Amino acid sequence: MTRLATPSAKFSTLPFIKVEFPLFLAPMAGVTDPIFRTICKELGADVMVTEFVSAEGILQAWERNKRYTKLCEEHRPIGIQLFGSNGENMGKAAQIILDHDRPDFIDINFGCPVPKVVGRNGGSSLLKDLPLLASVARGVVKAVGDKIPVTAKMRIGWDAQHICAHETCRLLEEEGISMITIHGRTRSQQYGGTANWEIINECATTAKIPIIGNGDICTPQDAASVKENTAVSGIMIGRAAMGNPWIFADTRYYLTHHTLPPKRSPESKINLLLRHAKMALDSGHYGDELHTMRHMRSRILAYTKGFPGAKDMRSKLVKTSSLAELEASMHELMSKMPKKIDSSQ
Residue 343's CB: how many other CB atoms inside 10 A? Predict the structure, then answer.
């Protein structure tokens, strides 16, 4: 077996990083729940971050919100992501989380583009007010930075006319942030257009702390290109993992052996989808069977994208309301596929 190289010296303040060029699972609201994290960890994700949680929600309704911070030991190393715009309250929330959950790090969300977060002056809205952004980072580092690393995730700017990635990285580094993940899009791009890896690379080249790159990493070859051509210390994968959590294992294999592993069959994806649904149902994380399957509908579409016959069944799949219905639909899909043995699971 090929040994992985040791982590970069830039990771010296992050003792949970054990491999060279770590692969992070991105925090995605409604996606990276404990069930999906379990699957991605099994399939090679090195480090994970929870779905974001509001600092104000932690302070005002802890009992209702603590389920978002619940961690499983087998998911480590894992960080909990907070968003908010009041540094003191962010620090208090981070302390509550640290006392209750003992994550490996606290991550601050400076990148979420969704209106409900931006409208509360959180996420990427802080890129319009860098002094406020710095005060948020300062508040969290002051509260817990002597006990646990504090990291941040950001975008390159608010829009094309207000690119602030270089200045933001400098400020965050000065405030004691231990690692920064940069999504190479502006807030106004949302998830459209293409990620700007030139800016990510410029920030990674000048920063003294690790910079993790995020955006448009859809294949192992994309990851290898980033590793070879930029100064980032690792990558974060988000949307590409939603229907293909194997991307972590495949990427590590490709980085190690410089060739792709055997291609996986649609049957293996269907088997994992059914396991995912059963795990979600057994966990009770989303409530009863109907609510759980409603949550799973987007996952069903992601897993089966591109399968023979899936497009014609889309209207049926988005109405799935029970595990039995899902199993019947998957049996129907599998009956339309050529039979072959999948030895790559």
Answer: 9
